[in-house]
């Protein structure tokens, strides 16, 4: 809260900072929005927490899928070992920084199982899917 109060004081002194707080308190033209301080705090809390929930759900889905898939689990266990040199305890090269299979899991799982309440798995049949159905020509 101390940081928020400090930021509010900077805003009252008309200090221009291009950040989310600025957008909540003033229009781009500099005109104040005249929101009560409590409203601003609530908006900041909602924005801060909204992203963390989706991230937590996405990571939970990744962990769940990896735990339930023995092949994925085995590949993920091998990846750090492959990046580690026999006489080293810590891997410092690009293989350790950007493990391809782990990155694939982290990108693919949220695509297949988005962290939303109504998201359906994003899969298509081997034949594909027609999203736009061609309209029949109107007969004269």
From TrEMBL:
Domain of life: Eukaryota
Pfam entry (one): p450
GO molecular function list: heme binding; iron ion binding; monooxygenase activity; oxidoreductase activity, acting on paired donors, with incorporation or reduction of molecular oxygen
Protein name: Cytochrome P450
Gene3D superfamilies reported in the protein's UniProt record: Cytochrome P450
Region described as Disordered: 115-140
Alphabetical keyword list: Heme, Iron, Metal-binding
């Amino acid at each position: 809260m101390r940081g928020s109060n400090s930021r509010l004081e900077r805003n009252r002194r008309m200090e221009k900072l291009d950040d989310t707080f600025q957008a909540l308190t003033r229009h781009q033209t500099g005109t104040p929005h005249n929101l009560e301080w409590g409203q601003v705090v609530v908006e900041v809390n909602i924005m801060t927490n909204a992203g963390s929930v989706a991230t937590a759900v996405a990571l939970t889905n990744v962990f769940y899928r990896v735990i339930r898939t023995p092949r994925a689990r085995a590949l993920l266990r091998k990846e750090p070992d492959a990046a580690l040199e026999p006489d080293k305890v810590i891997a410092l090269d690009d293989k350790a920084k950007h493990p391809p299979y782990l990155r694939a899991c982290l990108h693919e799982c949220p695509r297949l199982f988005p962290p939303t309440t109504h998201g359906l798995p994003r899969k298509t049949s081997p034949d594909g899917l027609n999203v736009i159905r061609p309209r029949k020509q109107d007969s004269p």
